[in-house]
User: Fold this.
Amino acid sequence: MLITCPYCGPRDVIEFTYQGDGNRERPQPASQDLDAWNAYVYDRLNPAGDHNEIWQHSGGCRAHLRVVRNTLTHEILSTAFARGGHKTESRS
Amino acid sequence: MAEYSALSLLKNALNGNQDWKPAWRKPDPKASYDVIVIGGGGHGLSTAYYLAKEHGITNVAVLEKGWLGSGNVGRNTTAVRSNYLLPQNTRFYEHSMKLWENLSHDLNYNVMFSQRGCLNLAHTPAQLDDYARRGNAMRHLGVDAELLSVDQIKRLVPALDVSGSARFPVLGGLMQPRAGTARHDAVAWGYARGADRRGVDIIENCEVTGFLRDGDRVIGVTTTRGDIRAKKVALAVAGSTGRVMQLAGISHMPIESYVLQAFVSESIKPIIDTVLTFGMGHFYISQSDKGGLVYGGDLDGYNSYAQRGSLPIVDEVMSEMLALFPGLARLRMLRSWGGVCDMTMDGSPIITTGPLPGMYLNCGWCYGGFKATPASGWCFAWTIAKDEPHEFNAPFTLDRFYRGLIIDDKGQGATPRLH
Assistant:
């Protein structure tokens, strides 16, 4: 499996560390909404098909990437810098 | 129905093996059943078997998308053990072990259960302490466990590199003598035949495409072979749990699916007569009766439903094998394959009523489902028949994650691929 790092170009998957599901919504640290915390920690979409994921190019530029990958074929559909890492609620 | 005995073997041998009857029927689905079990793997078949045998519920259909036993029951590395730390797991898997010990007699089908022991190798003093703790926890609950010295291990597995110059020198190990291996296909076939002859319909090539609902209640399934109604619908679909739950409108589960690879080498003379695990990585190995070494290691480290693995894990597993057995460097690998594992957030399974009315759920077997096959079906059948869990599976609820009651034997946290 090759992942195209936006900075380094196409590299073998062994250079990357999988950081899991990129769909999770992390509540604000002070949030006391237990359902939202439970959902963030334990609930997964786990699709058979296109999956939104976070990977780190740990054996290269160390950037965190948002990768869309098909879990049935292992085809990489898109890669981009993840910037904020896991999605966060907008801060006002 | 195919019955096996010394006499029937002799008779059929003299007849040129022309008169064997199929071990199970190929019925068309009826319009309705008391119980539908989705998934014709080890757990689904054992559930149907124990529903019929223990609870007298025989109006049961097992629906299988492909052919019987085409999933993980035929893809695993066949190890059976009950060497857990936490009491919830120990009690459940020890119940399974006791069912294993009588399974061939119970099914009148030789599942080739061989109690050759399972030895976990320790490579650091801290790991050895940890194994002593786990061994004591097991013995406390009546499970057999012995801490072995390097000399004892050397006598037991002469091919193992126990020298001080090994990459990770062996300091000792934890042995469960009653652990072992079984013939995985025979387990599926034995349960299938046992269920079939008690009246269960095993319906292959019948994929569930949706659920029939009456409000919230599940009242049946739509399939590629028509609609089938049932008072109770039970899921035992392992790696496909997420997909099937989505058909029921439940989009999120505390589960991620990963591929686990397994390997078998060419046949060689007997060199390993136990199940051995490496403590400084994730590697386990045993030798089949045909002589092939059967071994495996870590999951491929990303979500996958592909049922095939990637080369980096092949490389890693082989290097771990050579760290233990340098003498196997020129052994040739015969086959490798992958199965999809439903990894839960705490590494322990789910056997429960719900989450919808009329539905029953059995999933989350991570990569330890084979050894659980008898107890999983036994407990799931109890739960379906009585609408409440047996004490052995009462801790394995779906909502334990949200109630702070996780059963995390490894202490790994909510990162499924690390369990």
